[in-house]
Design a protein that fits this description.
six-stranded parallel β-sheet; alpha/beta; two-stranded antiparallel sheet; 14% strand; TIM Barrel; 8 helices
């Protein structure tokens, strides 16, 4: 009887252990399954959030992006680089009335790089040299029309009375109507400089803009509109994505990204002449 009892007790204990192991395994499987479901749900939620916050989610792909880049300087009067505020206002009204979307620098880079656009009529409005009147004359018009423009900023000119200060740039950027890209530190003709001096101009201006405006500056606008092979080498070393020249023409996604053409707006242009700057043929 004692031996039988012992065997019986051992059997009961063994069955209990097996049952416990089975229950533990089932619990682990259930927990693992639940965790997987939670992870999948979290992943799906994150994907939906990304889609809802992706600013380019409604853009469509095209074979070739064609982008008129308008070039302005001072919004005032006096010479061929100065477009009066009245004319600028009429031209911005024309763009709005004819359904043009005025891109930001980041949007322009994205469009050209990935061959995607928000709509058929797009334009990039740029103003070179960061004149003070860009703030007093151009900015109010851009804001009123709910449009956008890029100012190519000379970082070493912030102490000049005729040019924008850092405080001006921060205020304008905060409005969402203006962004700032590089026009070098001293606005020297890059063709006349050694590679090292060119690189210093490009790197220093980008670092200044990145640090002070909390951004990733992607575009360099060449002073005098000219660049040589060393300039393009320096562009890449300084981590610029695109570069603007003063060569006339319509920019496309099939062109050299470090020598994009622009359409110069001059004072006294008729609306017909202005509209011709936007026209292109495939």
């Amino acid at each position: 009887m004692h031996l039988r009892g012992t065997k019986y007790l051992f059997g009961v204990l063994l069955l209990g252990l097996l049952a416990g192991c089975t229950a533990t395994t089932a619990t682990k499987q259930h927990t693992s399954s639940s965790s997987a479901k939670v992870a999948t749900k979290s992943s799906q939620t994150a994907a939906k959030h990304h889609q809802s916050t992706d600013p380019y989610r409604h853009w469509h792909s095209v074979k070739k992006v064609t982008l008129p880049i308008l070039m302005y300087h001072s919004i005032s009067s006096g010479n061929q680089l100065r477009v009066p505020a009245k004319e600028f206002k009429t031209q911005m009204a024309y763009l709005k009335q004819h359904g043009y979307r005025t891109l930001t620098a980041n949007e322009a880079v994205y469009a050209l790089k990935y061959h995607r656009v928000p709509q058929n009529k797009i334009v990039w409005v740029t103003l070179d040299d960061s004149y003070k009147d860009n703030m007093t004359a151009a900015w109010p018009i851009i804001k009123q029309n709910h449009q956008h423009a890029t100012i190519n900023f000379i970082t070493g000119f912030t102490g000049k009375k005729t040019h924008l200060t850092l405080a001006d740039a921060k205020l304008m950027k905060a409005s969402g109507a203006i962004d700032f890209q590089s026009h070098t530190v001293r606005h020297l003709d890059l063709n006349d400089l050694t590679y090292q001096v060119q690189l210093t101009e490009l790197v220093s201006s980008k670092k200044w803009l990145d640090h002070n405006l909390h951004q990733n500056t992607q575009v360099i606008c060449y002073p005098a509109g000219r660049a040589n092979a060393l300039t393009i080498k320096a562009d890449k070393a300084a981590h610029y994505q695109y570069a603007l020249s003063t060569v006339p023409g319509i920019a496309t996604s099939q062109q050299d990204q470090y020598n994009l053409p622009r359409q110069r707006v001059v004072p006294g242009m008729s609306l017909a002449a202005f509209s011709s700057l936007l026209e292109f043929s495939d």
